[in-house]
Amino acid sequence: MQGDRNRVINRIRRLLETVNVKLGSVISNVVGKTGLAILRDLAAGHTDPERLASNMFGRLKCTRAQMIASLRGRFTDHFRWELKHLLEQLDFLDRQVAEYEARISQSMAGQEDLLARLCTIPTVDLITAWTLLAEIGTDMSRFPTAAHLCSWAGLCPGNNESAGKRFSGKTRKGDRYLRRTLVQNAWAASHMKKGLLKQMFFGVARRRGMPKAAVAVAHRILQIAYFVIRDGTMYREVGVEMDERKRQRTAKRLARRLEEMGYEVTVKAHARTPIAPGPLPGQTCKMCTAWGRACIHARNAVKTPPPPPST
After folding, report:
1. What pLDDT, in 10s, does the model give residues 142-164?
2. Whole-angstrom Cα distance, residue 143 to residue 223?
3. Nearest in space to 153 (alpha carbons), one of 174, 167, 172, 138
4. What's the CA gap between 88 and 91, in Å, rounded?
5. What pTM, to 2 d.p., does this model score?
6. Which end of the chain is more exposed for a tag (fewer CB within 10 A), N or C?
């Protein structure tokens, strides 16, 4: 149902482009609150860009002038008729998606704690947690190890080797619903600000390319889900420890290369100066006090004149 809904949204975006309306260039979601209000006004026959731009809600990256410029198009009766039918399809699919989600929630009754623990894994939301439970269940005794589960799901590299020569490492065909969902989560991990999964994605991508990195991260997410379901634990991010170990390995590797080039290397960590307790001179705000540094906001703050003395 969500795939059908995405196809209708793509048809709406293409229909807007045919009449030279660049709504998708100024807002990211053409069927959000602002986009839907504009589309319904267009379907009702309103074509004035000033009136259409009055439907801007929330905090948008575009300005009102940019919105008005994007809404100057060549509108026809056929365009309004087709847009009206596409919006009806979108409303119908929205109702169906809501009904399916309510039905799935009823079927998942009693698994709220497990779903909450699965959602602690980065990039895993409620839809992914539903998919994991629907495809692999809650009994992990059928899989002796996490590697067995990943192999069953088709997220392991192929083992095609003969006479010491390795051939294609293409993955086998596994559970297509589980593979598709986890690979989408892996691509989402590449857009995270920080975290172990993002480090793993770009670490593999530098050596093997981004598509293989997505499969590798999907493999790791399924491994984590296996232990969360089997052991009843929650995910704990270990990015700080991994960064520290990686920093030490990188220092040793670079020192070894310099020694091979004939240099004498001594690796010494930079000594950090302890932060003195209490506010520093010039301290004016709580944020800089927590950082243990002189305030950097005082010079940028607008100084308001003192009130006049009362007479």
Report:
1. 999 999 999 999 888 767 777 77
2. 12
3. 174
4. 5
5. 0.67
6. C
